[in-house]
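Model it.
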Amino acid sequence: MDAQSRGRAEEVDPADQWVLNPQTGNYELRLNPSGPQSSPSAGTSPRRTTAPGRGGPSRRRDVPGQRDNRRSGGDQDESPAAPGRRKRKPKASRKKKALLWTGGVMGFVLVAGSAGAYLLYQHFNNNLNTVDVGDAGSKHATSDGPVNILIIGTDKRTGKGNEGYGDKGSEGHADTNILFHVSKDRTNATALSIPRDLVTNIPECPTKQKDGTSKTVRSETKVRFNTSLGQDGRDPGCTMRTVKALTGLSVDHFMMADFNAVKELSTAVGGVEVCLTKPVNDPKSHLKLPAGVSRIKGEQALAFVRTRHSFGNESDLDRIKQQQQFLSSMMRKMKSDSTLSSPTKMYGLANAATKALTVDSGIGSIKKLTSLAQDLSKVDLKNVTFTTVPVIDNPADGPVHKTVIIDPYKAPQVFSMMRSDVSFTEVKKKENQAKDAQAALLKGTRAQASAVRVQVLNGGAVAGSASQTLVWLQNSMGVLKSDNGGNAPAKLANTTLAYAPNQADQARKLADLMGLPASALKPGTQDAVGKTPMVLTLGADFKGAGIPIAAPAKAPEGIQKVEADKSVCAK
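Modeled.
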């Protein structure tokens, strides 16, 4: 059945736009479905695009005795009634409904490409590679809550022309890592880069090996994050578990890509614009670009995201910044009219994405990926923030710094914001909401830290938390009138601070120091007598001394971040 016979032109199944040209014997892409197909004139090479699949869609085979309007140059719908059915909608509406599917594109680019195409469903389904990560991820593509997708770029030398990249003998380590967190209300998202050289702990990990056997890989402490994949048979589920242990965020799904992903996807969208503050000629990565804006694709795009010697202090942390710049630009390009309105670009993008991706079984089909993409498409690019786990140089390295460790003050705040769905771009509204909720209890004067008198109990936190908190309060915060009361009589899910009315100023000060939410404050009805202390009971939600229980209303000062809708230049 011809596409025109099914309704409006903008609802055409893109697979139906591949048409047999009898004069050339080739299937061609009809870019203007409402107009007649032209025949190549004498002496002119026909405009031709090779159809995907094996010789084009089978629905285009000729049926003997049946009129074929494509051959005659006419259309079945060339009738008085047709123009009303083919009338083009306004541009905004057409863009919204442009095509109906996305290919994924390194996970969080789903947000940009979610208006993609349904093209050749089974063809794309067969492109996908899947890994069963067991209970490390979710069995469902979408949920009513927040969504966390781990994007992994490996250093494995797979694909033609990649022999010169990465580690020759690598099984594929976690070279590039981005945790894409989408808020429950789908208003904002945070793309958190995790440095490959971050020293962390890798938990024990059950895996399914290539030969079908099961293997539990032992845990390791104080090792590089990138060894959470590939090393000792670890699969992406191990990296997901490591991210959860590091951030406290449960990872729902993973998407993994190799070097070919950058080359093929950048080519599929017709190139990605990047900006440089100075010209670059790096013989190691073979990146050669002038200052200003350049459009890169293929090998040049891969060189841009892999170079370590062209920008900043030539560290992996500076390379992360240029990768974020590249991915932001790709997202903007995918969201643009030039991509959404081009069936050839959308086919190339979907084909390249599905070929490049390995995903968990929870999203291991085009139907599931489509469902996830449609769910995430609600996020506006202006509310997508790229940031990096705050880190400091690893003191164990000595004078030559090769690895990093998390910043003990800033990193917990970033993780807490993500766990509480606090946006890094739209923070003002949530900041005001938080202030309103706490106003009743926290409005008023504060006592000096030296005047705060408190007893600390452990009511469900990890063993030793009361002692650690006491040391932190006395040595770091100046709360000298504090003591350890041991274990609480009962375990609590949430930390509480019980105080008398005449201790309200002390309670406000301690709440500020510890990042306690208003719900943690439990005022009494009778004034305290003499040196009676307040009682701070650490519940199961307590993460450690100095780590706020309530999520910060704004990002810590000095952390690296950039919004996806902003264009920045690599320095």
